[in-house]
Structure formats: C-alpha cells, structure tokens
Amino acid sequence: MLNVDNLVVSLRNGPQILRGVSFGIEPGEILALVGESGSGKSMTSLALMGLLPPALAITGGTVSLGGTEITHLAPHQRVRRNCGKVAMVFQEPMTSLNPVLRIGEQIGEAVRVHDPDAVPADRAKELLDMVRIPDAAHQLSAYPHELSGGMRQRVMIAIALACRPQILIADEPTTALDVTVQRQVLGLIRDLCDRLGVGVLFITHDLGVVAQMAERVAVMYAGMLVERADVGPLFRAPLHPYTAGLMACLPDPESDDPLLATIPGAAPRAGAVPDGCPFAPRCVRAASRCRSGALPLVHGGEGHSARCHFPLTAAASA
Amino acid sequence: MGRYVLRRTGAAIATLIAASIVIFAFIHLIPGDPVYVMLGDGATPEQVARLRNRLGLDEPLVFQYLIWAGSALQGDLGQSIFFETPVTQVIAEGAETSILLAVITMFWIVAFGVPVGILAAIRQGTWIDQGLSGLAMLLASVPTFWVGLYLILIFAAGLGWFPSSGFPSVFDDGGLYNLRYLILPSLALAAPNAALILRLTRASMLDVAREDYVRTARAKGIPPYRVVLRHILRNALLAVVSAFGFTFAALISEAVVTETVFALPGIGRTVVQSILRRDYPVIQGVILVIVCLYLIINLLVDLSYRFLDPRVELE
Amino acid sequence: MRQLLLTWTRPAVSRPMTAVGVLFLLTIVIFAAASPWIAPYPPDLIDPVNRLQPPGPGHLLGTDHFGRDTFSRIVYGARLALLIGVGVVLFALATGVPIGVLSALFPALGVVLMRMVDVLMSFPSLLLALGLIVILGQGVFNAILAIGLIYLTTTARIVYGVALRLKAEPYVEAARSAGAGTWWIVTRHILPNMISPLLVQASFVFAFAQLGAASLDFLGLGAPPEIPSWGNMLAESRIYITRASWLLLWPGLMIVLTAFSLNLVGDALRDRMDPRFREMMRR
Ligand SMILES: Nc1ncnc2c1ncn2[C@@H]1O[C@H](COP(=O)(O)OP(=O)(O)O)[C@@H](O)[C@H]1O
Ligand SMILES: [Mg+2]
Q1: Where do the TM regions start and end (chain C) (predicted)?
Q2: What is the spatial distance between Cα B186 and Cα B182, in angstroms, rounded to a whole number?
Q3: CA C265 – CA C257 distance, rounded (Å)
Q4: How far apart are CA C98 and CA A185, in angstroms?
Q5: How would you label C70-89 residue by residue, b for 16+ Cβ within 10 Å and e otherwise?
Q6: Cα B17 from Cα C12, distance rounded (Å)
Q7: pLDDT of A219 strictly over 80
C-alpha cells in the first residue's frame, strides 16, 4: 500500500536529516517506528504527509501510495489529484487544535474536503462516536480548551479519520498524556486499525508499547533505519546492538531495581553524523571497519534485517 | 461575564479618577496664583473674586477637587477665559470635525494596514514583503505634519483636487460633499498608524503561521487560502484588535498636529490654541474628555477581545 | 565592551539597509561635532538680498525667508537632534529602569508604581508632553523632559516585564534562596541581562523623540525659534511652501532619515535578541 523508498530529507543547503529510509505498510497493519528523540521520526512522518517545515525538503527517494507517487505533493494537492491519502495525529494535543474554532467546525472542515456529499455536522458526530467521545453531539460545540488532553487527542484522531486515509500516522500520540489515558488512546488506535483496515505508522520512543501495538517494527537511529523485523523475532533475537541497548533500557517487571540502564553517550546531531555506522561511537562491539564505508545488510529470518558488521545473532548474513 | 465586565469597568474608573486628579493638579502646578494664571494679569478684582469663589479656592485642596470633579460629572467643565463660553460648548463645537476625522482615518488604517500586512506576510521573504515592510517602517518614521504639508503642496496647491484647509460642517451647504476637506488630513494622519498596523498584522500572521494548529489545518488538505483566512488570519487579528486602543491614542496625539496643519476647527487645534492663549479651563476640560474617551475605547477593545477569544475565562 | 560593540555592528553587516542607516547616523554625529567647519555660513547669518534662493552654487540647499543658508542650518540642526535624542533616552532610562526594576522586585510597591504608569499612559502622549510644557514653560531642556516623560512610561513597562521574567529564572531564584541580597541580584543578574532589551528600546525612543520634538517645534512649543532645529525650520517654511518648496524638503528628510535609520537599527537589534523578550518589544 504505502511504499517509502530510499527517502532522503535535508536541511536546505545543509546536512541530511533522513539518510535513505525505506519501508512499506499494508492495509490493516501497524508498523512501529522506534528511536530516541531527535532520530528523525517526526521528520519522516512530516515528509510522508507533504508537510515538511520550510527549512527542510525531500532531496531524494520516493513515497508512493497504492502505486501513485505522492512524494512532493502537499495535502491539498493530493486532494485535488484525487490520490491516496495519509493523515496524521500529532504529538502535542494541547497546541494542535485551533483555539478559536469549535471542535465541530474543525472536524467539519476536513469532512467538507474529503466527503463532499456528507452533512458535515452529522459526519463529525459519527466520527466523535467512533473515537468514543461521550456525549458527542454536545462536544461538537465545545472549544479545545474545554477538553482534557486525552479528549483532544481523540478529536485529533477524529480529524485524521475525517480525511478517510489509507494510512494513518500517529506521532508519539500519547507522550503528553497520563498513563491510564495513554492505554485508552492506544487501544482506540489499535481497534480503528482493525476495524477500518487502515495502515498505521505508529511512532514512539518507547519500545514497551510496541509489543502491544504493532505487528512490525523499524528502529531508527540518526536518520537511518538500523533494524526491521516482526515484533516477535525482534524482541526474541535483536540483531543490532542499538536495538538490544534500547531493550536493556526497558524496566524489568521481575526486578524491583528502579535504576534503568541507559546507552552511554548521546546520539549524533544532524550534520555531525560520523562516517560508517552512526552508532559506532556508542557501541561496545564496534571495530575499526565500523567507522568507515558502507554497512552490510544482515538477515535474521523472514523479514528481519539490520545494518551492522557485528550483528548479535551470528546466524545471518547477506 | 458580568463579573469580568464589572471588574474591568471598575479598573477603568479608578484610572479615570487618578487621571482627573492629575488634570486637576495641573492648574496648581503652574507657577503663580491659579486665579491670575487663569484670568491673566489684567483681571479686575471682581473677576478675581468671582472665580476664587467659583473654584472654592479658599477651601482645602481636597474640597476644591471634589467641587471641580463634581461639576465635571454634571457636565460643567467651567468657563473658557478666551471665549467666555462654557468649556463644554467649546468642545462640542470641535467635536464634529475631530470625530469625523478620527473615523475616516480609522477607515484608511484598517483598509490599508490590515490587507497590506496580510499580503506582506503571505509573501514573506520576497521582494514584495521587503518592499512593503521597508515602506511601512519609513512611513512610521515620518512626522504627520510633514506628510500633511506635502499633501497640501501636491494635491491642494498643485493639482487642486482637494481643499487645503478648513472644514465646513456636513450640516452646512455642501452636506456630505464637505467631507472632501477631510481627505488629505485623514490620509496624513493615517500614514504612520496604518504603517504600524501593517507591521503588527504581518508579525502576528507570521507568529500564528508557526503554530501547531496551522499544521493540523494544512494536514486536512484544505486549500491554502482557507488555511490563511480561517486559521492564521483569525488568530492574528486578535493581536491587531488589541492594538486598536493604542492606535486611537496615537491618533489623538497626532490629530493635534494635523488639525493645526490643515486649520481644521477640531478639538486638537483648540487645545494648541488654548495653550498659546493660556486658556487653562479649556485645556483641562479637553484633556479630561479625551482621557475619558480613551479609557472607554480601551475598555470596549478589551471586552470585545475577550469575546473574540474563547480561551479567556469570562466568569 | 567588545560584546557591546559587536551587538551594534554585527546586524549592520548582515543587512545592507541597516548599514546605510548606521552610516547616516554617523553623518549626523559628524555634522553635530564639526558643524562650524562643515557649515559654509553661520546658521543665523541674515542676508535679505538673497532670500528664498533655490538650491544652487552659492547656497547648496538654497536660503530661507531671511536669506539664511539652509545647508548650514541643517548641519547645525544635527546638534539639537542629537541633544534631544540623547537627553530623552537618558531621562527615560534613568527613570524607567529604577521604576520597572523596583516594581518587579517589590510587588507591593509595583502595584502602586505600575498603576501610576498606567495613569500616565491614559493621556495621549503629545497631550502629556504639551501639559508639561505648559507647566514648565518652553525651552529645549523642558522639551526633553516632556518627551522623556512619555517614554518613561513605556520604558518602565518593558523593564518591569523583563525584570519579572528574569526574577523567575531558576538561577536568580537559586541566588535568592542562597541569601543573595537585592542589590547583588539587581547588579549581577537583572541589569546585565537587560542590556539588549534596553538597547532596542533606546533606539526606538531615540527615533520617536525626533518625531515628538519636531511636532513640538512645529506647534511653536518646542525649541525657541532662534535655535536652528529641523522642526523649527519646517515650522518657519510652512507659509512659503508654494513659493519655496525646497525649504520643506531638507529638514523633513533629515528628520525622516534619522528616525528611519534608528528604527532600522532597533529592528535589527531586536531580531537578534533573546526570543523570550522579543515579544515585549513589538511596535
Ligand atoms: N526546522 C528544523 N531545522 C533544522 N533542523 C531540524 C528542524 N527540525 C528538526 N530538525 C532536526 O531533525 C532531526 C530529527 O528531528 P525529529 O524528526 O523531530 O526527531 P524525533 O521526532 O525522532 O524526536 C533532529 O536532529 C533535529 O535537530
Ligand atoms: Mg518527534
């Protein structure tokens, strides 16, 4: 369905932020994109949306949806050309809704564009019901500041669904929410994916929620995908030392030790990414050949691959 | 809502009272006996006695203030020394000119400042934007009276399109056609203020354009012009509306000069002439009325702002 | 000092318009400092034979209704422009900064002081200045006080806002809880961080002081008529505008270009400022 092929995003006349990212998403499937903050997850999603900030541009690769290339099209151009649609739920529910417009108007606006035949108010109410907002008819006339963070994020999901997307991107949709609310919103996304058959790109920096949410996982580091796998194999036998490091940071349910492990060092800033493997400076397994040249693609079973000279599971090789 | 209006009105009244004390103190701050200050040195003893009695000058200052403020509340701002008529009448005679001038000027400011500011913001970084922003800053640096003199030189003395001075009432012969007397003055008066509104509109459009909710709006796939009108402009105008009180004050200040340049029979010129004639009751009265007006307009701007922005808690 | 110099020169280099503005301001300073050597005639030399001469070889920018040389008067006018600008800025800073800082540090005092500032701000600025002129009488020094009073209010407001923010900064709070005295906090944490907002404010005040002084001169309530200020030159030329329109051009241009240059500099400084404070310096 969605196909991202060797996507490169750069600062205008500057360093690359995304350095050749490829993945695909099928209808009804959830792909989790995992990585530390600053690794380029949000820029990936904005590039797919055609909404990169003015300072950034797609300088290589393609994005196609249902066979149509949509790489350089902004959302309104995609509407005009009647091609497939990508919709997005943003990270910050508190600032992502227009403070002076009622909820109903903000949803209705999307309905009018994507569902010209529907009655906006009716469809908006239907959408609010779909995202399980109680008393939907009444909430249509509420202003964003009258809703809680969790409710606002549901409204954001409703707006995204109003676009009738084939692909839904959720960029850390629950980072700003309380734990209980988090679980509800995650459940909602999972459920909508199953029910509506949309493909979901689920972005998170928390490997913990990945297992509950996704079928497949892509791990991003410094603007590169370092490992891709189905959830099961990834947790059972990660190939890339970075992935293993992320897992070591997860709280262990069987131990009471509150101290979490962390990967020593910090991720490189865009523009200061070293030659060779970007993770090498922080990697205990790194050797001299990690510090220059291309990285081999190693395999660890069906659909499981990583870019590493010294994968943790020796079984595989290119 | 009611509580907010009440609290805000209360604050305005408190400011008005404080301002009235300043205006009252003004006459006592001028060196010399207030009576001779007001009547001039050539005053007859009867005149002096009458005024002394009327102002209650033998009473303590607090009483004098209360007498003055009390009669002001009843619409009695005293007597003009030069015209020998009530100050309220002097003000009333200038009111038509000044109000019409302010309204027409405000029209130019909104009609040019806001749309051109939007244009500059939409074309941010292009030569259109740089040209317009530069022009705006230039206009904001120009004295209104200098613009006024050039307008007279070109459009009145040179081309003869508009009269150069004076303003016959719209109730006299000529009716609304007499408004042509106010075209040049209002343009001169509007120039720097429209420039400020232009800059403010542009700046707040650019601020709002960076907001997350604008990205949400774009993500919906609605056409760019609707993103600008419905999402960016609407929020940007909140800041512009809140600047109207400030604009009004600037307008009054500069109207004093503009009315003098164009010899308009308005309140502003009355103030200047009264200062030159040392007609203190008129100065006091006019300033009190203007401060009052300013506070009312600011109050209205504030209240309407709260109406426009649903985030503000009104309870 | 080096830092200060850089804050003033760096924006000029990156923006050609601003650079031109800075050059113009330098010209004004040179005019003021070296007027007797630059001006071909004394500014008040009356020459009835050559009155209202258009610009030409003998008189570069023509002569006025007394036959005085316009160029010479323009050059000498730079002195008053600088005097007014510097005077107003100094007055506004010397009064506005203490009011703003004290109000921020002592909330109880702040309520009273800022309320008083509000009251002053409810008078349209020119009327406030005119009122003070009526009380003090006409004169250059009094014009400075009158215009300074207008910018006392805006300066106090801005300083108050900035000082409140600085006071809430973690390192200032830490210093306070560690027992640092008020004077220490003000001189070590608040004033040093206020330099760039104050520089911006100073440029704008300097610019608008030019316009205010010109208005007072034009109304006949500013500098005494014998002083060659640009505003006075405009006021005197008013009745000759159809006969000698160049008299209107030069002094007006000097006022406009001075204010414009200062606004450009202020804008450039503001754009390089800490974004937390930039918001407050609008307009
Ligand atoms: N407007 C921008 N200008 C310059 N660099 C940017 C901009 N936005 C993001 N970046 C850089 O892009 C990289 C990826 O950021 P982002 O996609 O937001 O990370 P994530 O969402 O994974 O936390 C970061 O290193 C960040 O510094
Ligand atoms: Mg992000």
Answers
A1: 20-39, 80-105, 117-137, 143-163, 198-224, 244-266
A2: 6
A3: 12
A4: 53
A5: bbbbbbbbbbbbbbbbebbb
A6: 47
A7: yes
Cα-based distances in Å from B285 to A69, A140, B26, B34: 73, 53, 12, 16
* Ligand closest to the CA atom of residue A57: 1
Domains located in chain B, CATH noted: 87-314 (1.10.3720.10)
Assess whether the C-beta atom of A53 lies below 6 angstroms from ligand 1.
yes
Atom of ligand 1 nearest to the CA of A220: 22
Smallest CA-to-CA distance from B141 within C124, A222, C206 is with: C206
pLDDT class of A318 with cuts at 50, 70, 90:
very low
Query: Mutating which of C24, C111, C117, C119 best tests the B interface, going by the most B Cβ atoms within 10 A?
Result: C119
**Mean of the per-residue pLDDT values of chain A:** 88
What percentage of chain A carries pLDDT values higher than 90?
Answer: 46
Helices C230-237/B144-151 angle, 10° precision: 30
Question: Mutual orientation of helices C246-271 and B144-151 as an angle, nearest 10°?
Answer: 140
Q: Please give the model's pTM, rounded to 2 decimal places.
A: 0.83
Domain borders along chain C are: 28-35+61-281
State the Cα–Cα distance between residues B264 and B256, nearest whole angstrom. 10
Tell me the angle at which helices C230-237 and C246-271 cross, rounded to the nearest 10 degrees: 140
Residues in chain A: 318
Which residue in A161, A38, A192, A170 sits closest to A91, CA to CA?
A170
Look-up: residue for tokens 């227009």? A98
Q: Decide if B290 touches C, using CB distance below 8 A.
A: yes
Residues 6+ apart with CB under 8 A from A259: none
- Residue C12: pLDDT over 70: no
A114, A198 Cβ separation under 8 angstroms: no
- The second-level CATH assignment, the architecture, of C28-35+61-281 is Orthogonal Bundle (1.10)
Question: Rounded to the nearest 10 degrees, what angle do helices B234-242 and B280-308 cross at?
Answer: 160
**Residue A245, both tokens:** 């490091």
Interatomic CA distance for residues B138 and C267, integer angstroms: 12
Q: Which helix H or strand E contains B283, and what residues bound it? A: helix B280-308
Alpha-carbon gap, residue C37 to C17, rounded angstroms: 29
Q: A169 C-alpha to center of ligand 1: Å?
A: 17
Between CA B178 and CA B101 the distance in angstroms is 12
The pLDDT confidence band at residue B314, using thresholds 50, 70 and 90, is very low
3-state SS assignment for residue A68: strand
Give the number of the atom of ligand 1 that is nearest the alpha carbon of residue A269: 25
Give long-range contacts, CB 8 A cutoff, 24+ apart: B83-88.
B83/B279, B83/B282, B87/B281, B87/B282, B87/B284, B87/B285, B87/B286, B88/B285
Place of tokens 């209205």: B300
Range in A123-132, B20-29, B140-149 the model is least confident about: B20-29
Q: Dump pLDDT digits (tens) for B98-126.
A: 989 999 999 999 999 999 999 999 888 88
